[in-house]
TrEMBL record:
Signal peptide: none annotated. Keywords: ATP-binding, Cytoplasm, Nucleotide-binding, Nucleotidyltransferase, Transferase, tRNA processing. Belongs to the SUA5 family. This is L-threonylcarbamoyladenylate synthase. The lineage of its organism: Bacteria, Bacillati, Cyanobacteriota, Cyanophyceae, Nostocales. It is found in: Cytoplasm. Residues 3-192 form the YrdC-like domain. It comes from Fischerella muscicola CCMEE 5323. The keyword Signal does not apply. The keyword Nucleotide-binding applies. Gene3D superfamilies: DHBP synthase (3.90.870.10). One of its GO terms (cellular component) is cytoplasm. GO terms for biological process: regulation of translational fidelity; tRNA processing.
């Protein structure tokens, strides 16, 4: 029952359930931002490993971060260049970000727009979601919806009939770049080279 249609997946997410869907990197485990605790519990993830806020477009994410006009301009330029894509920007969090997204350091939030049509179609319906890779903490990311269904039977997984059978992701996690107030610090080098 856990592999579901697009509409059931979206409805499940909006009702507060954990869902999983393909992205351009690895499949995502996702929930509404205020339900992010469910992800930490399902993955047995340490509280000091924050989640990423993923959305269908940059405009849906800017309200979750705060900075000066100059900073917003810099961030927008990077977003214009690399999004949609495998780049996560870690920026100062606004008051709109639920503490559950980053319990240990709620001052920052990672944001991303995936380069994957089915992921953006889902996110356009749900609004921004708390996301991370679908796997138990410390284990490699699961690559197929069947693996995710087996490991997380309680999670609603997008049925492979809802998109082209090949998982769109390349299996390489996103590059994570943190804004220091002056420049970018690369926390994890992934598929995108920031220059």
């Amino acid at each position: 029952m856990t592999q579901v249609s697009f509409d059931t997946l979206v409805a499940g997410a909006l009702s507060g359930k954990l869902i999983s869907f393909p992205t351009d990197t690895v499949p995502a485990l996702a929930s509404l931002p205020e339900q992010a605790t469910l992800i930490f519990q399902a993955k047995q993830r340490a509280q000091d490993k924050p989640l990423i806020l993923m959305a269908a477009n940059p405009e849906a994410l800017w309200a979750f971060v705060k900075g000066s006009d100059q900073e917003y301009q810099i961030w927008q330029e990077v977003a214009d260049k690399y999004w949609p894509g495998a780049l996560t920007l870690v920026l100062p969090a606004s008051a709109r970000v639920p503490i559950a997204m980053n319990p240990i350091d709620p001052t920052t939030i990672g944001i991303r727009v995936p380069n994957c049509a089915i992921a953006r179609k889902i996110l356009a319906q749900t609004g921004p979601l708390a996301t991370t890779s679908a796997n138990l903490s410390g284990q490699p990311p699961l690559q197929t919806m069947a693996e995710i269904t087996a490991q997380f039977p309680e999670v609603l997984v997008l049925a492979s009939t809802e998109y082209e059978s090949k998982i769109p992701g390349n299996g390489i996690p996103s590059t994570v770049a943190k804004w220091t107030g002056m420049n970018w610090q690369i926390l994890r080098q992934g598929g995108v080279k920031l220059n």
